[in-house]
Amino acid sequence: MTKIARAVVVVTRKIPEAVEQEIATEFDARLNPNDTPMGADALQEAMRTADVVLCCVADKMTADIINTPGRKAKLLANYGVGFNNIDIAAAKAAGVLVSNTPEVLTEATADLAMTLILMTARRAGEGERHVRSGQWTGWRPTHMMGTMVSGKTLGLVGFGRIARAVTKKAHDGFGMHVIFHDPLVPNGALGAQPRASLEDVLGESDFVSLHCPALPETRHLMNAQRLGRMKKSGILINTARGDVVDEAALVAALQNRQIAGAGLDVFEREPKVAAELVNMENVVLLPHLGSATLETREAMGRRALENIRLFVSGSSLRDRVA
Ligand code: DGY
């Protein structure tokens, strides 16, 4: 691989300032201080004029953008562990490298899965709205009763890094029984017990938390039929990717009381959220906050920066995904 003397790096969105400064010190950086979303034209311009595009999970790096005529860029340094925003086949075919930022967001995302479990079980969003709207009339024994988290069964769909971090928090912290299904992980670990099929996990769990990547095989994994396999008292948690769940089927399952609730940080058509979900009290909705802590977002920036450094010095990437 060839070295690049003074690489031009386009950073598509505003990222934490400390990392922006590091990028600007080392490279000819084009930052986005106003955080204006870059449309297809701006992304194509970036592909034409930069050596590296540091893009984020909200930038749709389609085949058309990757194949921009006169493209100069040879690295897409994705600011995120998931990279379903990038047409990987097109990048491979075009010889454009792709890196991501694994590991550094594991704990933050697992924390957010626990947040959603606790919020849905204890009706925290509903309670907040109740207080803020002035409807609270005082303590009473049967007011807004939720369901226990401690001692319940948590079913994990996928057993990668984030699912393992959730296992530790749920098992050690809340005494939950943790089960999982992951076709690539036959044996249990950290107190989590494997199940032979996804259906087994769905049927046994009080909370089902999704931790699989967005792949063609996982699109609408949670469809009407699988939602129907969950307990009627079951709660679905999604901090993975929106299209792992068939959102229309989820709305129907909630409306028909086939499941009791959902805690969602990701959506099928982000930033659009089905209007029916917005009106349901038993659903907690967050705006894709899984990795949104300053520490994590800085670490993600530094991990992307490390990959860029390796690329411009002609070395192998640490986190190459294509
Ligand atoms: C990721 O990294 O994939 C997250 O969804 C962005 O926080």
- The coarse silhouette is elongated
The main β sheet shows up as: 7 strands, parallel
Spatial order of the strands forming the largest sheet: 8-7-6-9-10-11-12
Q: What are the low-pLDDT stretches, counting only 5+ consecutive residues below 50?
A: none
The helix content is 25-40%
- What bound compounds does this protein have? (2R)-2,3-dihydroxypropanoic acid
Helix and strand string, N-terminal first? EHEHEHEHEHHEHEEHEHEHEHEH
The Cα radius of gyration reads 21 Å
Estimate what percentage of residues fall within beta strands.
5-15%
**How many helical stretches?**
12
Based on secondary structure, the structural category is alpha/beta
Distance from N terminus to C terminus (CA atoms, Å) equals: 15 Å
- Tell me, rounded to a whole number, the average pLDDT: 98
Number of strands: 12
What brief labels describe this structure?
single chain, 322 residues, alpha/beta, 7-stranded parallel sheet, 5-stranded parallel sheet, 12 helices, 36% helix, binds (2R)-2,3-dihydroxypropanoic acid
Q: Strands, helices and their partners?
A:
Blueprint: E1 8-11, H1 17-26, E2 28-30, H2 40-49, E3 52-56, H3 63-66, E4 75-79, H4 88-94, E5 97-99, H5 106-121, H6 124-132, E6 153-157, H7 161-174, E7 177-181, E8 192-194, H8 198-204, E9 207-210, H9 224-229, E10 235-238, H10 247-255, E11 261-264, H11 275-278, E12 283-285, H12 294-312
Parallel strand pairs: 1-2, 1-3, 3-4, 4-5, 6-7, 6-9, 7-8, 9-10, 10-11, 11-12
The chain binds (2R)-2,3-dihydroxypropanoic acid (DGY).
The site of (2R)-2,3-dihydroxypropanoic acid has 7 residues, from loops.
